[in-house]
UniProtKB/TrEMBL annotation, chain A:
<keyword id="KW-1133">Transmembrane helix</keyword>
<protein>
    <submittedName>
        <fullName>Carbohydrate ABC transporter permease</fullName>
    </submittedName>
</protein>
<feature type="transmembrane region" description="Helical">
    <location>
        <begin position="186"/>
        <end position="207"/>
    </location>
</feature>
<feature type="transmembrane region" description="Helical">
    <location>
        <begin position="109"/>
        <end position="129"/>
    </location>
</feature>
<dbReference type="InterPro" id="IPR000515">
    <property type="entry name" value="MetI-like"/>
</dbReference>
<feature type="domain" description="ABC transmembrane type-1">
    <location>
        <begin position="72"/>
        <end position="261"/>
    </location>
</feature>
<feature type="transmembrane region" description="Helical">
    <location>
        <begin position="76"/>
        <end position="97"/>
    </location>
</feature>
<keyword id="KW-0813">Transport</keyword>
<dbReference type="Pfam" id="PF00528">
    <property type="entry name" value="BPD_transp_1"/>
</dbReference>
TrEMBL record, chain B:
<feature type="domain" description="ABC transmembrane type-1">
    <location>
        <begin position="64"/>
        <end position="275"/>
    </location>
</feature>
<feature type="transmembrane region" description="Helical">
    <location>
        <begin position="102"/>
        <end position="123"/>
    </location>
</feature>
<keyword id="KW-0472">Membrane</keyword>
<dbReference type="Pfam" id="PF00528">
    <property type="entry name" value="BPD_transp_1"/>
</dbReference>
<keyword id="KW-0812">Transmembrane</keyword>
<feature type="transmembrane region" description="Helical">
    <location>
        <begin position="150"/>
        <end position="172"/>
    </location>
</feature>
<keyword id="KW-0813">Transport</keyword>
<keyword id="KW-1003">Cell membrane</keyword>
<feature type="transmembrane region" description="Helical">
    <location>
        <begin position="68"/>
        <end position="90"/>
    </location>
</feature>
Length: 276, 285
């Protein structure tokens, strides 16, 4: 038994060492270089900064006429708008798909689930957006993000509905509730746990999305956070301190989210992966 | 109670409307526009010319090959690494919760940020990775600038970022395995390796299938990391399907770009769907 215990301690030590080398070092590297002076940061090493330069962050904010503030505003609006849509349409969709196992719902379910595998058809989507005059608008971007995340959201809601007993709806029906009332007054409040998973996971992926804004939301005034970071890469190729300050600015919100919602995020991802 | 009335079709309408207009409809339209030379205002029909170009032009064709290498390698590496990480992180070590979080966190950072960081770490003369290699007496190399290594450097970065999800899926699968199996095995005198092979591997099959499918499809669709790290270069060494779609679009060849998109659909349809069917059929017995 004693030998076993020693083995586990050895495991702990090896694990921590490996984690430090492979995972902590890259993050430390970002943070350290974000705080350095330009010339020192361009050496790209991981020694502690000679002097700490918090003004790097200020410079990142001021760059390109405060573009990053616009970018955070745009990204924020896209995230809030699309997550709201996803909660509404996803909960209603997942609800009926789980409750009604007939042909119509089978077809809807099959169609929606293709979206988990198949990528978006990009240029035709731009064509559609142009026809309805939503290309290069936040509204268009919000609707695209919503459409692309409907499959995952519906799947999470459908999975969770399985744990809610049908008797609740029957009771509501006997008491004279309409179908709409049953959903809004009885079911939707019960979906709260999965709704919070939906909010966090979709918010993170949509905030981190780079490809779709690149295609569907071009233009400086429409920049999102990820696009500014990408443009920064070209513009500040020789000022790694500013580049990493921007990286840190974008990473810290995720870190805070993760510290608070660790379990919810991990469980949500696992549920999504296994049921898909 | 009247099911059709309570669970009205109307509940499904909003989701289907958004999904159809912005996903399904463009997908169907793409089949048509892939057969044309078009801009957003007009088109000329050109038959299968776009597809022919795709398979005859070596730079475009190599993007299909690179996509396959990328998808298969990221999938295999994530599968093996995540499996052993999960075995390690479900054992009785004390720091497992902390280590799980550490392994998982890269998944939440933006791909562009990861790309920037690893570009710096892989810098040919100043990069930390080369310094470490030189410290051990090896020769550093230009990871992203060499046509032979660039694709693999990006693949390794992808594995670094994505192994966490695969690991938590495996952990969830392994935690649902009944502990009595292991007790029975150890009473029968099985060693750790034997019970791993005879109990853990077969019983985490569903998790394994999810990991394979997810990372394989993710690999086929990859774009952001390639774009942030190499932009498809040097030459065409890291060009994948999705980056070709973007480049042809940026160059104004909309028909070719749409055809690339359709080839992605076909690749996923002929590879991922049968793969999933095959894996699920194995799961039953």
């Amino acid at each position: 038994m004693k030998k076993r215990k020693r083995l586990y301690i050895l495991g702990d030590a090896a694990g921590l060492l490996a984690a430090a080398v492979f995972f902590i070092v890259p993050f430390a590297f970002m943070l350290i270089n974000a705080l350095k002076e330009r010339r020192e940061a361009n050496l790209l090493n991981i020694s502690l900064p000679d002097s700490v330069h918090f003004e790097n962050f200020l410079q990142v904010f001021q760059a390109n006429n405060y573009q990053i503030i616009t970018a955070f505003k745009n990204s924020g609006m896209i995230v809030i708008g699309s997550v709201l849509i996803l909660i509404i349409v996803g909960s209603m969709g997942g609800y009926v798909i789980q409750r009604r196992k007939d042909r119509t719902m089978g077809v809807c379910n099959a169609l929606i689930m293709t979206g988990l595998m198949v990528p978006a058809a990009i240029l035709p989507t731009i064509w559609v957006l142009q026809r309805i005059h939503l290309y290069k608008t936040l509204t268009g971007m919000i609707l695209i993000e919503a459409a692309l995340h409907i499959p995952f959201t519906v799947m999470l809601y459908r999975g969770f509905m399985g744990s809610i007993p049908v008797e609740l709806e029957e009771a509501g029906y006997i008491d004279g509730c309409s179908g709409w009332k049953i959903f809004t007054k009885i079911i939707f409040p019960l979906l709260k746990p999965v709704t919070s998973t939906v909010i966090i996971l979709n918010a993170v992926t949509i905030f981190n999305d780079f490809t779709n804004p690149l295609y569907f939301l071009p233009g400086a005034e429409n920049a999102t956070v990820q696009l500014t970071l990408y443009n920064f890469m070209g513009q500040y190729a020789s000022s790694y301190n500013l580049l990493f300050a921007d990286v840190i600015l974008i990473t810290v919100p995720m870190l805070i989210l993760f510290i608070f919602f660790n379990k919810r995020i991990v469980d949500g991802m696992v549920a999504g992966a296994v049921k898909g | 109670m009247n099911r059709k009335k309570i669970y009205s079709n109307w509940f499904m309408v909003p989701a289907m409307a958004v999904f159809t207009i912005f996903f399904l409809l463009p997908m169907v339209i793409s089949l048509f526009f892939s057969l044309t030379v078009w801009d957003f205002h007009s088109f000329t029909f050109c038959g299968f010319d776009n597809f022919k170009t795709f398979f005859s032009d070596s730079s475009l064709y190599s993007s299909i090959k690179n996509t396959m290498i990328y998808a298969v390698l990221t999938c295999v590496l994530k599968l093996f690494l995540a499996f052993f990480l999960a075995v390690f992180l479900t054992s009785k070590i004390k720091t497992k919760n902390f280590l799980r979080s550490v392994v998982f966190f890269p998944n939440l950072i933006s791909t562009v940020a990861v790309g920037i960081t690893f570009c710096a770490l892989m810098h040919p003369s100043k990069g930390l990775i080369n310094h470490v290699i030189e410290l051990f007496g090896g020769n550093g190399m230009d990871w992203l600038g060499n046509t032979h290594t660039a694709l693999y450097a990006v693949i390794l970065t992808d594995v670094w970022k994505g192994v966490g999800v695969a690991t938590v899926i495996f952990i969830a699968g392994m935690q649902s395995i009944d502990k009595t199996f292991y007790e029975a095995a150890s009473i029968d005198g099985a060693n750790a390796w034997q019970s791993l092979k005879a109990i853990t591997v077969p019983l985490s099959r569903p998790a394994m299938n999810s990991v394979i499918i997810l990372s394989f499809i993710g690999g086929l669709r990859t774009f952001e990391l390639i774009w942030a790290m190499t932009g498809g270069g040097p030459g065409y060494a890291t060009e994948v399907m999705a980056s070709t779609v973007y480049k042809q679009y940026a160059a104004g060849y909309y028909g070719l770009s749409t055809a690339g998109n359709v080839i992605m659909f076909i690749l996923i349809a002929i590879l991922a769907f049968p793969l999933q069917k095959f894996l699920l059929s194995k799961e039953v017995d």
